[in-house]
Amino acid sequence: EDKVVQSPLSLVVHEGDTVTLNCSYEVTNFRSLLWYKQEKKAPTFLFMLTSSGIEKKSGRLSSILDKKELFSILNITATQTGDSAVYLCAVGRTTSGTYKYIFGTGTRLKVLA
Amino acid sequence: DVKVTQSSRYLVKRTGEKVFLECVQDMDHENMFWYRQDPGLGLRLIYFSYDVKMKEKGDIPEGYSVSREKKERFSLILESASTNQTSMYLCASSFPGRTSYEQYFGPGTRLTVT
């Protein structure tokens, strides 16, 4: 059965800390891995990774995919209180010609001032 | 900016009622999705549609149906609401195809069934 597992489930850090969020997967017909940030509303898109070893970066956030070991990490440096959110990992796969996404349960990050 | 809107942010219904949740997107996306999000379970796919009048079951379709009469609108229907359908419902849309596109999400509808 396809699955996406995120760890840790929750995390509390202080402003300025660096955090690493993990996403491992076992999915057939893998096509992509996506990271989203969800505050008290709709998830917003952060990154999409399709190739192993290529880091995607946006400001203090970066992410990398390892297709051999079947995982991805999301790094946030110099955390701020505005980074507090649930971070979702989703894996895109094809099945019978259609494209679907499988989500992990998310990592809840709280950044304290 | 892509906009995905959902008809209600909060909804309270009684057991046995028929419930309609509507989703509208303005980016001419072919693909539309309905998920429910529950603590500890993440987002689970209920149904998706890759074209007008086309639909496919997701992972948890039981107790739900969908309708897509127009490209921009995707409706989720709870035929007879039950308390175990109390949840956050999220609609999403994306471009089609076998390549990867990110999904754009609506703000969600928090449904309570009493």
Explain what you see.
The complex is a heterodimer of chains A (113) and B (114). With 113 residues, chain A is mainly beta. Chain A has one domain: Immunoglobulin-like, CATH 2.60.40. Chain A is 0% helix and 63% strand. Chain A has strands at residues 3-7, 10-14, 19-26, 30-38, 44-49, 56-58, 61-66, 71-76, 85-95, 98-103, 107-112. In chain A, strands 2, 4, 5, 9, 10 and 11 form a 6-stranded mixed β-sheet that branches. In chain A, strands 1-3-8-7-6 form a 5-stranded antiparallel β-sheet, with no helix packed on it. In chain A, a hairpin with a 2-residue loop joins strand 9 and strand 10 (98-103). Chain A is globular, with a radius of gyration of 14 Å. The relative contact order of chain A is 0.34. The model of chain A has no long low-confidence stretch (mean pLDDT 92). With 114 residues, chain B is mainly beta. Chain B has a single domain (4-95), classed as Immunoglobulin-like (Sandwich), CATH 2.60.40.10. Chain B is 0% helix and 56% strand. In chain B, the strands form 2 sheets. In chain B, strands 2, 4, 5, 6, 9, 10 and 11 form a 7-stranded mixed β-sheet that branches. A 4-stranded antiparallel β-sheet of chain B has the order 1-3-8-7, with no helix packed on it. Chain B is globular, with a radius of gyration of 13 Å. Chain A binds chain B through residues 4, 31-32, 34, 36, 41-45, 48, 50, 88, 90, 92, 94, 97-106, and chain B through 4, 31, 33, 35, 40-45, 48, 50, 56, 58, 90, 94, 96-100, 102-108.
